[in-house]
Amino acid sequence: MASLKELRASIGSVKSTRKITSAMKMVAAAKLRRAQTHAEAARPYAAAMRRMLGELAAAMSGEDGAPKLLAGSGEDRVHLLIPVTSDRGLAGGFNSNINRTTQLTIRRLQAEGKTVRLLPVGRKGFDFLSRDYADLIVDHVIGVGGKEVPFSAASDLGARITKLLENSQLDVCTVIYNRFQNVMSQVPTPLQLIPLGLDEAEAVSDSNAAQYEFEPDEQTLLERLLPRNLQVQIYAALLESAAGEQGARMTAMDNATRNAGKAIDRLTQKYNRTRQANITNDLIEIISGAQAV
């Protein structure tokens, strides 16, 4: 049985832990409000831009001279996966869900005979993938998360992807990120960036598809729009991941704070029972000694 001194030390330790987790919960809640606002503000713009260029990609499919950022290389051999995780832990299943989704995607693509390459964003994803798939990693990005997600991070990542595409080192590019739904729910979501297309939710019928007239000319406009669209889609994914990270951390720290409180109650109860037992034993010894005299 633990002594009173050991129990007091345990109670003090758990109380200190509860203070830390409670403070981390409040910090995450404050960051979440800002991150959620930014993520929700970016959604309509990213969706509209993707829809417009997705319709254009569908209209230009099969045409010669279609830009690679729009139509891809025309092959389906080399897949670049970009898993987006956080640099820090203590966020529940936020990072493990992305790592597991990425691992399953790698196994599926390799089973289909595809070549897989990885460009992890975030320290947790990079550390996880380095253990089993170090030979597949072509580059990595760390330090994107924080109080603010700079657009320069998306621009830099877009430039790296474009360089790999121009050097014929990828055919298909997909980003895997946690889409923020609410504080309790972040959904691992794969989003294909190259070639650009519409998913079932975004697709429109041919009769309703918009017809575009280009001003200036089509080539000049696409040269400006396509790199920007790639950056916008990446930036929207980074913002969603940032909001999801803070939501997951807030939930995890709330659970940890509650569990610490329950542990303190159990230790306090045990401490009181042990103290009562010690007092009882001391009284029995005193009474027994008095009777012996």
TrEMBL record:
SUPFAM superfamilies: ATP synthase (F1-ATPase), gamma subunit. It is found in: Cell membrane; Membrane. One of its GO terms (biological process) is proton motive force-driven plasma membrane ATP synthesis. Keywords: ATP synthesis, Cell membrane, CF(1), Hydrogen ion transport, Ion transport, Membrane, Transport. Belongs to the ATPase gamma chain family. This is ATP synthase gamma chain. Its main location: membrane. One of its GO terms (molecular function) is ATP binding. Produces ATP from ADP in the presence of a proton gradient across the membrane. The gamma chain is believed to be important in regulating ATPase activity and the flow of protons through the CF(0) complex. Gene3D superfamilies: 3.40.1380.10, ATP synthase, gamma subunit, helix hairpin domain. F-type ATPases have 2 components, CF(1) - the catalytic core - and CF(0) - the membrane proton channel. CF(1) has five subunits: alpha(3), beta(3), gamma(1), delta(1), epsilon(1). CF(0) has three main subunits: a, b and c. It is a peripheral membrane protein. It comes from Acetobacter oeni. One of its GO terms (cellular component) is proton-transporting ATP synthase complex. The lineage of its organism: Bacteria, Pseudomonadati, Pseudomonadota, Alphaproteobacteria, Acetobacterales.
